[in-house]
Amino acid sequence: MPSVTNAVSSEDFLKSLGFPMLEVHQTFPHFDFTRPGRRVLLIGPMGSGKTEFAAKVWRDAAVALKKSGQVKALTSTGEVDRRKVFFIRSQLDGARFTDYPEDAMAFRSGYIRCGDNIARIRNSFDLEKVFADNPTVGTYIIDEASFFDERLAYVVRNQSLERGVMFIFPTLILNFRRDIFNSSARLMLDIATDVIPLTAYCEHEDCIKDAFYTYRYYTVDGRECPALYFDPLIVVGGDSSKTGSENPNYAARCDEHHFLPGKEYTFFTLKPLAEEANKTSNIKKLRSEIEHLKYGMKKSLLYKNLSARYKGDPNEEVYMNSLRPDYIAEKALMYLFNEQNLVSEDMLIRIVNDLNLDRAYMSRVLADNRRPVSLDQGLLF
């Protein structure tokens, strides 16, 4: 970011205008397009204004483009002019903001039109094609960069170092589990030159603290049902409020109101069951737990863990509501297969078929998480 006017000089300026003694904050500056090669991370929970900040950069660029050739010399490196801005989104993100125009950079309080300077891409190879097609663009806003492959981090780093291109990344660095989102997010942190943290108000009705975390929950029978720790990492969906077990809702939450049941169970029970099955090829105990999660929740080790852990907690009811959504068995099995690699594809298909788990739901989620599997294998007709 450009250097900002410090509090002392701002205070002196205001005194010269006759203002009384008061608390003076740092100036919020326009964006600096003169510095080549910056890689700026805009991080914060959902609803913290990351894309809206990026939209301000777009508007600042529109003003800067009206300046003289002397200004162009300051904002350019070779044929690249950093006042020319291009917006990139993931093709996975197509379900968001469906009520807006196709060329919109949309955020929760509005949108701006990008015209031809917008593209939806699948991966870093698509991004390289955008670079080739737009050789004079000097600033790229890449929305939710953590959703892309790891290679993207090095593609953008090389462009910034070799051509002076600037990149702005409005992205989640922490997932709903409060972990680093994925390896792509970790690499984004490695290559960043600037990090701008943004916060939101905690969206719990009784709280107005700063929220740093994104909270995922389902709304079932009108109840708030926190996502369990092993909920799928990526769930593709829009920003509108949703009900039911398939599509979650998100909210910015502070530490106190970010409910995340099932983490202890995941590491204390679920993973060891899969490790034993993987080591001995005996899936009996793991299969039994998955069966209980699907057909007899109160018999499951998950139910026993949550009941013991949250008994008497002021938020006990909210934590126990996490067991209300459907597909908990499917989610547990997919977590072990997709994220932990503790369940083989053959073992996955066998348990799915043995227990008649929901194949359509699992196929869709596994594909969205880049681990597609044909779950109809082995079915008897």
Describe this structure in words.
This protein has 381 residues and is of the alpha/beta class. It has three domains: 24-198, P-loop containing nucleotide triphosphate hydrolases (Rossmann fold), CATH 3.40.50; 201-253, no CATH class; 263-368, no CATH class. The protein is 37% helix and 19% strand. The chain has 13 helices and 14 strands. The protein has helices at residues 7-16, 50-64, 69-75, 124-133, 151-163, 183-191, 263-280, 284-295, 301-310, 316-320, 328-339, 345-355, 359-368, and strands at 39-43, 76-77, 80-90, 104-107, 110-113, 118-121, 137-142, 166-171, 194-197, 200-201, 210-211, 213-220, 223-226, 244-253. Strands 1, 2, 3, 6, 7, 8 and 9 form a seven-stranded mixed sheet that branches. A three-stranded antiparallel sheet has the order 13-12-14. It has a two-stranded antiparallel sheet with strand order 4-5. Helix 7 (263-280) packs across helix 8. The chain is globular, with a radius of gyration of 24 Å. The protein starts with 6 loop residues before the first helix and ends in a 13-residue tail after the last helix. The model is unreliable at 1-7 (pLDDT under 50).
